[in-house]
Design a protein that fits this description.
Blueprint lengths: L11 E3 L5 E3 L7 E6 L6 H19 L2 E7 L3 H11 L5 E3 L4 H5 L3 E6 L2 E6 L2 E5 L5 E5 L7 H8 L1
Parallel strand pairs: 3-4, 4-5
Antiparallel strand pairs: 1-2, 3-8, 6-7, 8-9
Helix pairs in contact: 1-4
Length: 150
C-alpha cells in the first residue's frame, strides 16, 4: 500500500465520456482519488452520490474528485447518467492503476473469500504527494469524512 508522503503514481485513463485523464495534469489542485468495486451497486452508488452532492463545495476548495473502478467506459457512462454524477469515473479495465495503488486484494462476503477492489481513497496534494489514505472505507458518510479531514 502507498503511504502518506509517497509520490502518487501517475496514470492515464479514460472517463465515462471517453476523455483521457492524466493524474499529473491535475498538479496545483488537490485530488480525491477513490477506488470503488463496481458501478450500479448499492454501496458504490451511495458513495458516488455523496461525492456528487459534495462536489461543488470541493471544487470551491480546489479539489478534484476522480473515481476509479475496473468497469468499462460504457458502464461508467450508464452509472453516471443514472445518478447525474458530476465528476470523472475512470475505467481501469486492465487493473494497472488498481495494482499501482495496491487496492486489489482478498475480500470476504457472506463467508466467501474472493479478490476484488478494496474500497480505498487517497488525498493527493498539489505537488502529487499522498496526503492521506482512507482504507476499508464504509460508503455511507465517506464523502463527509473526507471533506472533514481535508
Amino acid at each position: 500500500m502507498l503511504n502518506v508522503g509517497d509520490a502518487a503514481p501517475d496514470f492515464e485513463l479514460s472517463d465515462q465520456f471517453g476523455k483521457v485523464h492524466k493524474l499529473s495534469n491535475y498538479r496545483r489542485k488537490k485530488i480525491i482519488l477513490y477506488f470503488y468495486p463496481k458501478d450500479l451497486t448499492p454501496g458504490c452508488t451511495v458513495e458516488a452520490c455523496e461525492f456528487r452532492d459534495a462536489n461543488e463545495l470541493l471544487k470551491k476548495n480546489n479539489f478534484v474528485v476522480l473515481g476509479i473502478s475496473a468497469d468499462k467506459v460504457e458502464l461508467h457512462k450508464k452509472f453516471s447518467d443514472r445518478h447525474s454524477l458530476n465528476f470523472p469515473l475512470l475505467a481501469d479495465t486492465d487493473k494497472k492503476v488498481i495494482n499501482l495503488y495496491d487496492v486489489w486484494g482478498k475480500k470476504k462476503f457472506l463467508g466467501k473469500e474472493y479478490y476484488g477492489i478494496l474500497r480505498t481513497t487517497f488525498i493527493i496534494d498539489e505537488n502529487g504527494k499522498i496526503e492521506k489514505v482512507f482504507e476499508k472505507v464504509k460508503p455511507e458518510g465517506h464523502a463527509s469524512e473526507v471533506f472533514n479531514a481535508v
